[in-house]
Amino acid sequence: MKFPSFITAERVVGRAETRRYDLPLNNGPGSGFLTLLIGLMAFLAALTLAAFFGLSGMTDRWSSGLENKATVEVPARTAEGTLLAPEAVDELTARVDVALKAQPGIKSTKRLSEDDIRALIQPWLGDSDLPGKVPLPGLISLDLSSSDPEIIGALEKVVTDNAPGARIDRHESWLHDLLRFTGGLRTAAFLLSLAIGCTAAAAVAGAVQARMAIHSADVELLHLIGASDSYIAGQFQRHFLILALKGAAAGTLAGGLALLGTAWIMGGGSESGLLPGLALTPPQMAAILFLPLAAGLLATVAARQTALRTLSRML
Amino acid sequence: MLCFEHVGLRYGIGPEVLSDISFMLEQGSFHFLCGPSGSGKTSLMTLMYLGRSPTRGLITMFGQNINGMGRTELSPLRQRIGVVFQDFRLMPHLSAFDNVALPLRVQGKPEKEIRINVNELLEWVGLGDHKHALPHTMSGGQQQRVAIARAVIARPRLLMADEPTGNLDDEIGFRLMGLFEQLNRMGTTIVIATHNQQILTRMAQPRLVLEKGGLRTEMPPAGKKKNQGAGAA
């Protein structure tokens, strides 16, 4: 009787390849639902990341724009309530300006002209001729080389010595409130991103457990013919990686379109320049485009760890 | 290569289905496992192919004590065992080809080698035209041949078969027994559980007889050439 040749002589041809699944993971129920779920997660993550980047940019612009800046205000009214003539205010302002220029810690000073000051208050008072009737303070914009409290204290003394009632406004009070507010929003966006990631990982873990329960007989058979836990976990890992990549790619694309739509509606930001537009820098765009890969990595780790943990309780 | 010492098995809190089983199989031996229905043949086979741990006693396989062995350590041992299950246990979603290829893929063999060997074996068992067929489209006999092909494809060191010829006609049955004998000549240890009197009469191998939870060894009838032996304590 002639037997198969490999029975009598070992034959080795070619090298091992990565192949499709031994387990019917593609045929199970819920694959489409999980892809959709991961797609929605990626969509939300794209929007959340964009919000995070937008808020970070806004905070950076505000804080860097006002860092080491201060404004000297020479009031148009004395402490006793007497209204000063515009020329007197101008003279006091000039005196303070000259005195400050000689101080250490001052990089530059700029006296604001009457037109500059009127332009500043125009957004609040409108185009009426009212600004012309309002007594205007003298303003000096300071560019400081340091925020050292000692230097600031010395500058404040110089200011009050030359113009009683004048003061230095470092914008800190309102800036801190704004930074705290945007910082809170940014933290919320970050936590939301984490929650989205955890939810996606939990969804994958649940799906892996369900698939392992459905195919427990096949998994047991694989074990009996010598499959290692890693081999079996690898099948789940590969399946859920592909699902996650598909879902997250679609979700990120949808998120990108939503961001484009939002940016189009918002235009280039607010007219006052206070609120920036929704423009993302190239690294930020790259981070959003990286979402499908991140989702794939997350699904891979979640699927593998869940499969290994579940297998360790079997047989 | 396989040694049972005072092995017992019970399921849950039920009575012992195997009591104080002791025997040793030498490398390259060939045995039939016999006994009436319900005597524990399948339970004993399950212990032998490492599908379950004994509730008592000691099992040594390939020179290693398998009691308390971790899952990671069991995998390479299982790769050296081929099993033909009584209910075949084919993967219903895989074709005959992929079912037979499974042990080689689990062992990480090259796909080209898998293709050549599996095709040749399927031709040999008469299923060359059915390699793409799913198990549910095949007859019981065809499924049994796929199960046997899967058990031998990786040239196991220990081959166990639970009623491997139950659904086969005599010709293919003896043909497959010839394959088992050939594997045995090449050093594979064979244990076949069977009721098939024709095979038992025609093949003069020692028998492990299970009765009332215990095991004894019977030598083949006089005048027939015996393969290698084993001892039941």
Q: What does this protein structure show overall?
A:
The complex is a heterodimer of chains A (315) and B (233). Chain A has 315 residues and is of the alpha+beta class. Chain A has eleven helices and four strands, in the order H-H-E-H-E-H-H-E-H-E-H-H-H-H-H. Chain A has helices at residues 5-8, 31-66, 86-101, 114-125, 130-133, 149-162, 172-214, 216-224, 229-266, 282-289, 291-312, and strands spanning 69-74, 106-111, 138-144, 167-169. Chain A is rod-shaped. The two termini of chain A are 40 Å apart. The mean pLDDT of chain A is 84. By secondary structure, chain B is α/β, with parallel strands linked by helices. Helices cover 33% and strands 25% of the residues of chain B. Chain B is built from seven helices and eleven strands. Chain B has helices at residues 41-48, 71-78, 96-106, 111-124, 140-152, 170-185, 197-202, and strands spanning 2-10, 16-25, 30-34, 56-61, 64-65, 81-84, 158-162, 189-193, 207-211, 214-218, 230-232. A six-stranded mixed sheet of chain B has the order 6-7-8-3-9-10, sandwiched between helices. A five-stranded antiparallel sheet of chain B has the order 5-4-1-2-11, covered by helices on one side. Residues 226-233 of chain B have low confidence and may be disordered. Chain A binds chain B through residues 1, 3-8, 10-17, 19, 22, 24, 27, 217-218, 221-229, 231, 311-312, 315, and chain B through 49-51, 71-72, 75-81, 83, 89, 91, 93-94, 98, 102-103, 105-113, 116-117, 120-121, 124, 150, 152, 155, 175, 178-179, 182-183, 186.
Summarize the SSE layout with pairings.
The complex is a heterodimer of chains A (315) and B (233).
Chain A: H1 5-8, H2 31-66, E1 69-74, H3 86-101, E2 106-111, H4 114-125, H5 130-133, E3 138-144, H6 149-162, E4 167-169, H7 172-214, H8 216-224, H9 229-266, H10 282-289, H11 291-312
Helix pairs in contact in A: 2-7, 2-9, 2-10, 3-6, 7-11, 9-11
Chain B: E1 2-10, E2 16-25, E3 30-34, H1 41-48, E4 56-61, E5 64-65, H2 71-78, E6 81-84, H3 96-106, H4 111-124, H5 140-152, E7 158-162, H6 170-185, E8 189-193, H7 197-202, E9 207-211, E10 214-218, E11 230-232
Parallel strand pairs in B: 3-8, 3-9, 6-7, 7-8
Antiparallel strand pairs in B: 1-2, 1-4, 2-11, 4-5, 9-10
Helix pairs in contact in B: 3-4, 3-5
